[in-house]
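Supplementary Methods, section 5.1.

A reviewer requested that the exact input to the structure prediction be made available. We therefore reproduce it here, unchanged from the version used in the analyses.
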Amino acid sequence: MEVVYEDNHIIIVNKQSGEIVQGDKTGDRPLSDLVKDYIKEKYAKPGAVFLGVVHRLDRPVSGLVVFARTSKALTRLNKMFAEGEVHKTYWAIVSTSLVNSEKVNSEKFLGDGEWHTVENWLVRNEKQNKSYAYDHEVPRSKKAILKYRTIGHSDRYTLVEVQLLTGRHHQIRCQLAAMGCPIKGDLKYGAARSNPDGSISLLSRRVMFTHPVSKEDIIVEAPLPNDTLWQVLAPKE
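The structure derived from this sequence is encoded token-by-token as follows.
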């Protein structure tokens, strides 16, 4: 477990792919328990440790997860996430370079490096744990909006930066796949093959918000995964 920011009210952790944020039916030990152990040991806290989960990342996704260390921070962060006051930026490696590719609908996915807004209507299938994208409203659908731009590419892959304007189930995974660009390793949404470690190449890269208690500006970035492809595609400082 890697802590990238902490204070009396908030702790931000760099989640590894394969970890679950909160306990589920698998019975695997969640990241939230590891964070509680860390706080208990570091600060020699007697008794139970308070930790509030304010958002989640899919199991195969890596990157930043924000936890609340106090009930005051939890209440305020929940409200901030619900009202879009926490700005999250994701990086995704998609399985095509977008250069002379027949797989990409050029009218939908533009690889010109400029910001573009995408709107779909997503329907979640609970049994399949999967979402489906439509260009128009259909029964049980929810509107999904994101912005994206391309920030790096090689012969086979493109690195995309994504900002979520809504928070839907598997939103980035589903919307990129609907444009003909599934995330590398994401078999559920059409990738050609899995990643060796079972991850998908989606990183919660940056989080920005006003601290719910101190009112200071918080900007935190996750380190890149320990994978050569990420290093090659990432923009050079």
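The first strand starts at residue 2 and ends at 6. These observations are discussed further in the main text.
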